[in-house]
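Board notes (copied after class):
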Amino acid sequence: MKSCFLLDPDRFDDDNNLFKQKKIEYSCGQTIIDENMYLNASSSDYEIMSVEKFDYKCIKIVLKLKGVGCYHSVKFVDSGHISESNPPQRNVRIIVDSNGKCNNEVFTNTFFFDISNLKNNSYDDIILNFKENNIKFKFNNN
């Protein structure tokens, strides 16, 4: 488990005119490279709220999920194919497994994924094409 300090926009210090820091604990889940899982795995409903670079090897993804109080397993899966473009592109998807006993309340949750196994050291950038959401995300390797 890693920790870092982020500026928290909800904790603004009016007296000093700056944002307070908030310590967060995070662990980057591994990216799975599996064409069969990419093509065939079923997933519970979700919506990608944001994707951003978190550190030199991890991305941070905020998802809107249904089912407060139930267990959600979230996997980040790559198809295994690399496009021959500049920068290279990878086709990825998020697979959400719920325990099936969830209510319909909607909530957001943040997930971190280590994408170092998707990078190509010959290029500064890589583009991640998210299958379900038509999102293209450019990740800078530096």
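Comment from the instructor: Residues 52 and 60 are 5 Å apart (CA to CA). Helices lie at 35-40.
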